[in-house]
Design goal:
Elements (H helix, E strand, L loop, with lengths): L5 H27 L4 H12 L4 H4 L1 H7 L5 H23 L3 H32 L12 H13 L3 H10 L6 H28 L5 H37 L4 H20 L4 H13 L6 H22 L12 H25 L4 H11 L3 H13 L5 H26 L16 E2 L7 H15 L23 E3 L2 E8 L6 E11 L9 E10 L3 H14 L3 H9 L3 H17 L1
Parallel strand pairs: 1-4, 3-5
Antiparallel strand pairs: 2-3, 4-5
């Protein structure tokens, strides 16, 4: 292969910037629409790939995202590294105590969600090989095994990202789904290794697969026994005798790459090694929260969007599109995976609603399906039309899983402090100099947002009733006011800056120059209490007060709050 030239490096950097920029913008848009960010990241790849950008400007698309050559190879390598690091970060978030507790249910779900789709895919390909486009020179058994694997496999990276996006990853539901997905993919990749061995005419295929299974199980056993103990003992030495947190982060990444290299070498995907290493490292109480946070933010903000957006660059969905084949493959994939997931979940004792959500969660095929299809296409096992059908199935199933889980389970969306701030609720120059006038002035801006539904006079007096966790209080130079209101369904936080200062009464010598008025539904005092507590903690730092007093726009103030609250939550 020819080496990367200066031109290739420039194109690679430009393509990465474009891919990451589009993925971040559309990911943020999806998040604002209360959809998983991965939805926008996948869409970014479709728009930048040959389907849209390649159709509108084929020469520009070929220049920016070449399908072959050194730049293409380098981009594929980077996306491979991206998904490996992402699975490591996902592993860090897994609570092993929950996995052991829910492992038996996850195994039942995994078995059912593999066997049923596998049998359906094998039956369809064996009986209708010409419809699915089996190549004449390919053994029918080989083709049927491939389609069976393609119907039964799940996409662990997409499933993990979606569960994180919808705030279900650490729940019992999320543990069951992840456990089942691990089993799905391990079985799928082992069977696919058999398929590749048959296509390569490997003579001693049975011994090869036995060795792969033995090495894979030995690796998992070592990681979660001796390996986990070694990591726990070594981490304090790394923290004590290397530059921190760089030394600790480097140690985790090195372990991840070694684990990924081993599982790739034995014939299963590198992501499994990274995921299991992440689980073992994350289980150690010696791993510092700051190191975990840095790894999570860097990988999730840079590498993860690049990988998920790159999926859409793989194929042109127009030139090799066969509508009947796409609908058939999509229908078989969805029906069998949903049914298999539901059967396994009911077998494991889960309720009907959760069982249905499990089916949709495991229905995500994502990159795993695309990688399978790409390898099969390169070996001549399938043709372009079936590859396109598999890629469309992979993307559509990945895009539908998050919204369907939200629709079915309706997970509680955590109310964050920064979400209660709005551009019209920042008053850089309060005019009132009395408590009553100040509350009326601040409540009036909420009333304008609610189009007159809030009467400022109704909250002139802040009650400290027993059911009201939060009431009026001055913390340092900050006045915190909280009230429950009948006319609102979500919290609002009004921020005011008073040059002259204001006290709780005219006799109060202590004056506050930063004022917060927290309004929330009257029947939910917990929200007010949490927000008062969080603001009290934030404004213990005099520098925070000084920076707030200097803020002259809502953007400056929100940036200060968001960066401070994120840091506070991770410490």
């Amino acid at each position: 292969m020819e080496p990367l030239q200066q031109h290739n490096i420039a194109v690679l950097l430009l393509s990465l910037a474009t891919l990451l920029g589009a993925a971040k913008v559309l990911g943020e848009l999806a998040h604002r629409l209360r959809q998983p960010a991965v939805l926008g990241e996948l869409l970014a790849g479709i728009l930048l790939g040959p389907t849209v950008f390649g159709t509108i400007a084929p020469e520009a698309n070929a220049f920016l995202f070449p399908q072959e050559g050194p730049s293409a190879f380098a981009l594929t390598t980077i996306t491979g590294l991206a998904v490996t690091l992402f699975l490591m970060v996902a592993g860090l978030e897994v609570d092993l105590s929950n996995v052991w507790r829910k492992g038996w249910v996850g195994l039942k779900v995994g078995v059912a969600s593999v066997i049923i789709p596998f049998a359906a895919g094998f039956f369809a390909a064996w009986n209708l090989p010409s419809f699915f486009g089996a190549q004449p020179a390919v053994d029918p058994l080989l083709f049927a095994l491939f389609l069976a694997v393609a119907m039964s496999i799940s996409a662990l990276p997409v499933i993990v990202k979606t569960l994180l996006d919808v705030n279900l990853f650490r729940s019992d539901f999320g543990v069951v789904v992840v456990s089942a997905a691990i089993f799905n993919d391990l079985v799928g990749w082992i069977v696919f290794a058999v398929v590749l061995g048959l296509s390569d005419n490997v003579a001693d295929i049975s011994n090869s697969i036995t060795l792969t299974v033995t090495l894979a199980l030995s690796f998992v056993l070592f990681v979660f026994t001796a390996g986990r103990k070694l990591i726990h003992r070594i981490l304090p030495y790394v923290q004590a005798y290397t530059w921190w947190p760089g030394g600790e982060i480097g140690f985790v990444v090195i372990l991840t790459l070694l684990g990924a290299a081993f599982t790739e070498w034995i014939g299963i995907h590198a992501i499994f090694g990274a995921f299991f290493i992440g689980m073992a490292v994350g289980d150690s109480p010696n791993l510092r929260r700051r190191s975990r946070y840095i790894l999570d933010q860097f990988v999730s903000s840079v590498f993860s969007p690049i990988f998920f957006a790159s999926i859409g660059l793989k194929v042109n969905f127009i030139s090799h599109f066969d509508g009947t084949l796409v609908l058939t493959v999509l229908g078989i994939a969805c029906a069998c995976k949903l049914f298999g997931g539901m059967v396994g979940a009911k077998w494991g004792g889960m309720r009907h609603r959760e069982a249905l959500a499990v089916g949709f969660a495991l229905n995500s095929r994502g990159a795993m399906e695309i990688i399978l299809g790409l390898l099969a296409l390169e070996r001549g096992i399938i043709h372009q039309e079936l590859f396109v059908a598999l890629v469309i199935t992979a993307i559509l199933t990945s895009m539908m899983s998050g919204p369907m889980m939200q629709l079915i389970l309706r997970p509680v969306r955590k109310v964050r402090l920064e979400d209660a701030f709005r551009s019209g609720l920042f008053l850089p120059a309060l005019e009132a100099d009395s408590m009553k006038g100040m509350i009326e002035e601040m409540a009036a801006v909420v009333g304008r947002i609610l189009k007159g539904r809030l009467d400022p006079h109704s909250i002139t007096r802040v009650h400290c009733a027993p059911e009201d966790v939060a009431c009026a209080a001055i913390v340092n130079d900050v006045l915190l006011l909280a009230a429950g209101v009948d006319d609102i369904t979500q919290p609002y936080v009004v921020t005011g800056i008073s040059t002259s200062g204001v006290g709780l009464s005219f006799m109060d010598e202590q004056r506050a120059h930063v004022v917060f008025l927290i309004l929330s539904p009257k029947n939910d005092p917990g929200i007010r209490g949490n927000m008062v507590a969080e603001l009290s903690l934030l404004y213990q730092d005099p520098a925070m007060i000084e920076q707030t007093l200097q803020a002259r726009s809502f953007t400056e103030f929100l940036a200060l709050i968001r960066t401070s609250t994120v840091y506070l939550q991770k410490e």
